[in-house]
Structure formats: structure tokens, C-alpha cells
Amino acid sequence: MLKVDTVNDTTLTKDIKKFVIEYLVDKYEPADIQNLLNRASYLDPRFCDVYLSDDARKLVKQMIIDEEGLLMKKDYCSVI
After folding, report:
1. CB-based burial of residue 61 (10 Å sphere; 0-12 exposed, 13-18 middle, 19+ buried)?
2. What is the CA radius of gyration of the chain?
3. pLDDT tens digits, 23-80
4. Which of 10, 24, 48, 63 has its CA at 20 to 30 Å from residue 79's CA atom?
């Protein structure tokens, strides 16, 4: 992770790091974005154990199961 207060960094480097951190936090902090990223991580076996804690994994699993239940109640194949 970027550390803003590194001793050897110039003022310009510190400013760039600070800007990048603020940009990334603003972009990825909203709950809906976090939910999307957590679901994607959960569904991809390469990332499930790496980026999600046990609690987050359980929560995302339950969210996916709940959503699947809602989708199964709707009749999406009524055209056929």
C-alpha cells in the first residue's frame, strides 16, 4: 500500500501519493462498490481466500443465496 509519510519522499511524491490514495478511497469506498467487489472476489476461487475475511465470506455467501432465491421466484422464461 502507498505510505504517504515516507522519510525519503519529496514533497511532490508525497502529494502524488496523497492524491492517489484519496482518489482510490473515493472510487472504491461506497457500499455498493464494495458489495460488487466482494461478490466478484467470492465467486473467483483465486481471490476468495486472499481478499475476503471469514466473516465477509459468510456475509457475501448469504447475500448471493438470498439473491438467487429472489431470482428463482421470478418467471424469466415466460417467453418460451
Report:
1. middle
2. 19
3. 999 998 898 999 999 999 999 989 888 888 999 999 999 998 888 877 777 665 555 4
4. 63
